[in-house]
Amino acid sequence: TVPMDLVESALPILTTDVSGPAGGFTATRYEVVHADAREITQRARTAAGVLTRTLRLDESGFGFDLELAFESRQASPVDARFSLEWPARTTTRPDFRDISLLAYGKESGVTRTAVPAVGKSGFLGFGGAKDGKQAIEGPVQWAGFDVPYFTGVVMDPESRDRLVVVFEAVEPKISAKTRVSLPSVTLATAGTMQEKLRGFYGPKEPAALESVAASLAHSVNRGWSWLEPLTRGFEIALVSLYGVIPNYGLAIIVLTVAVRLLTAPLMVRQMRSAERMRAVQPRMKALQDKYKDDRQRQSEELMKLYREEGINPLGGCLPLLLQFPVLVGLFYALRSSIGLRHAHFVSWIDDLSQPDLLFTLPGLDFPIRLLPLLMGASMYVQQKMTPTTGMDPAQARMMLVMMPAMMLLISYTFPSGLVLYWTVSNLLGIGHQTWIRRQTQLKA
Question: DSSP label at 346?
Fold first, then answer.
């Protein structure tokens, strides 16, 4: 198939073909029939027929129309259908590093598969296909490629689910392609068929997506469906704050403080419960030692102690569970906000959508990132301040080191905007916990 560049980029190459007629158009050269600043028409001829395609860009530069026409030269009726391919390849470019193939249907929802994983087995070795292909269940509305802040797709212009989509590995773990096929048509002798598709190639900016198709909002990964309204609310809040504070780093800090203030009642309950548990830990340890050979009596005595001190063993868990949607919503909002791309914060943080870099160790080529180190240290302090009631001391010491170390490892390649939020949230939590502890000690 002869490729046709949609824009001046090495990533999006859309190819067309007509399956059915002998030979198809996989090795046919196209001639340019017409071309101007926003439109190009190309034509290919074979013994099977004539394929004409016209690409027309919108004024916005993000949307486009693709018109396909085929005139059969077969001496007998033939079944034929248009097909398109949109390949994607792994790259070291920061904006396009996490590249996936993408499809959406009203029934199937969003399918997003990382290019290195196309056709490979899934979690614990299950799933995948020996032929390196992943067929999307049911007809879909649009399909293409996806990166965190950009997407490129072709779709039915009337938002109907009628496209058949297959993800296919080209070079396993390196490149793959999205194959989109339209419904088959039976052509009479010298018959013709035409199709028109709509497309989008551009940033995942809500207004730009909406200008082409409302369903393109699904290309933005905002977490689980029930979480999307909350994530979208945080996105709007972040943009609104940026309108007042023209620095996304400061806007993230203000948003983090605002979220902490809104969730303060829940945090206070959780922290006070933790402080009460910490205060009675010596008595609990004494009871556990006294009745270590009688688990039932140990449980009864511990529950009696809880009632005497007005402690709910689960009192600290419920607030944390209620805060979980807020934390995850903020996570997705910061990860999907295109405004963070190339957004400067302070001297060494010049792009909040990428990991920060303080310096690189000479000879080792190892990056030193200050924000993840601060985040890990602040999490260690938080863990140290949190009571470990009922936990084996050896386990408690292991968790004190393992949790911050694991989060440091995970966050080391995360966008600095996300790590900034976590760090500020941890620091606010430490300050809040210290204040609660002092208030509890004054009352004692």
Answer: B
What's the Rg (C-alpha) of the chain? Answer: 29
What's the gap between Cα 122 and its chain centre?
18
Contact 160, 141 (CB under 8 A): yes
C-alpha of 88 from chain center:
17
Please give the helix or strand (H or E) that residue 45 lies within, else none. Answer: strand 39-46
Yes or no: say if 79 and 186 are a contact pair by the CB < 8 Å rule: yes
Residue 119 in contact with residue 131, Cβ under 8 Å? yes
> Got the DSSP string for 105-129?
ETTTEEEEEEGGGTTS--GGG----
- Cα dihedral 308/309/313/317 (nearest 10): 150
Name the phi and psi angles at 370, rounded to 5.
-75, -40
Q: What is the tens place of the pLDDT at every residue in 397-412?
A: 777 788 889 989 988 9
Query: pTM higher than 0.70 for the full model?
Result: yes
Question: CA 268 to CA 332: how far, in whole Å?
Answer: 25
Strand-pairing partners, residue 199, are 64, 154
